[in-house]
Amino acid sequence: MFENINHSLFSLMHAGPDLGGMRLFMAVAMAEWLIMLVPLTLVLMWLRGTPEVRAIALRAALAVALALLVNGMLAVVWFNERPFVLGLSENVLNHDADSSFPSDHATIMFTMAFVLFSCAPTRVIGAWLTVAALATALARVYVGVHFPLDMIGALLMALAVTMLSVRPGSHDAVKAVLALAVPVYRRLFAVPIRRGWVRP
Predict the structure, then answer these.
(1) pTM score
(2) How far is CA 66 from CA 37, 108, 162, in A?
(3) How far apart are CA 185 and CA 57, in angstroms?
(4) Secondary structure of residue 102 in the 3-state scheme
(5) For 53-77, how does the pLDDT look when each residue is reduced to its tens digit (9 = 90+)?
C-alpha cells in the first residue's frame, strides 16, 4: 500500500523524460548545490559567531553526523531502490544506485535547519535553511533520484535528532567537545585571530 502511494506521488512530482534546458539546470542546482549552504553556514558561525553561536554550530554538526550514522544503518537493514533503478526516471545526476531511504541530502539540510531553528540566536538562519531544505527535497524527487517517502523519512530523522540535540545530556557533550576544539582552533588560526579577521 505505502509503495503504491509512494510511486503514485512520485509520478505526480517527477519532471518526466522531457526535463532539459533551464528547467534541468535549476532543478540540478537545487538538488545538488543548495546543500553547500550547510558547511558554509557552519564555518561562518564558527569563525564569526559568539561562543553561544559556536556551541550551536557544533551541536548542529554533531546532530548531522548522528543522523547520517543512523541513515547508514537503515540502508543496511532496509535497501530501497531508487526510481531510476526501477526504470521510473532517468539518472540525470549520475547518482550511485545505493539505497534511497532516507535521503542523505535532505537529512543533512533538515537537521541543520531544525537545530538552528530550535535556538533563539540562530532561528532566522534556521528558517531560511528550512526553505532551502524543502527546495532540495522537492528537487531531488523532481529530477528522479528519490521517492517522496525518502524525503518524509529524512524530515522525521531530522526531527528526532533535533529533539535529542536539545536534551541536557547533549548540552554537556557539546561543552566537552567545545572545550577541546576551541584551543586547537586558536592555535591553527592564531594569525587571522591576531589580525581581527575572525573571532578568538
Answers:
(1) 0.91
(2) 19, 10, 10
(3) 14
(4) coil
(5) 999 999 999 999 999 999 999 988 8
